[in-house]
Amino acid sequence: MARSLDGLVLAPVADQAPGQVGTRTRFTYHEKDGEIWAEYAGGDVIRGHLLGTRQDDRLDFRYVQLKHDGSTSSGHCVSLVVELPDGRVRLEETWEWESRTGSGTSIVEQVGGQVGEDCGTGH
Fold first, then answer.
1. What is the DSSP letter of 23?
2. Which of 29, 83, 107, 109 could, after both became Cys, cross-link 5 (CB 3.0–4.6 A)?
3. What is the rounded CA–CA span in Å between residue 63 and residue 82?
4. b/e per residue, 74-103, with b = 16+ CB within 10 A?
5. Assigned architecture for domain 8-114
């Protein structure tokens, strides 16, 4: 099983469609006793949250986000946790909107170190 996500900061490796998360979005993950949650923001997203479970290297969570235009959206995601050769973590995600139509796949990877370290967000 790949290491804990607790305290890790991850970012998408590619931009999605406009209005979705993208390379400027940062996810700060937390993990405890099989529970996972994260806060995220950046790009078109002002604030987002996800909440779910981890069993071995499989995450199953729901997410909700607020965009700059004032709209909200939510969905469901299942992710595979992969440890990269350099020790960073990658999530291979399969997601589907529940508040609107659409589905897809994406990859997010660990950037920088853990929370509190510079992780390229420009802040």
1. T
2. 29
3. 20
4. ebbbebebeeeeeebbbbebebeeeeeeee
5. Beta Barrel (2.40)
Give yes or no for a contact between 28 and 4, defined as CB atoms under 8 angstroms apart: no
pTM: 0.87
Q: Which amino acid is at 28?
A: T
Q: Residues 50-84: pLDDT tens digits?
A: 999 999 999 999 999 999 999 999 999 999 999 99
* Whole-number Cα distances in Å, 59 to 70, 119, 123: 28, 23, 29
Token pair for 74: 């939510």
Q: What is the DSSP letter of 96?
A: E
DSSP β-bridge partners for residue 108: 12, 91
Alpha-carbon span 52 to 76, nearest angstrom: 10
Encoded amino acid at 87, one letter: G
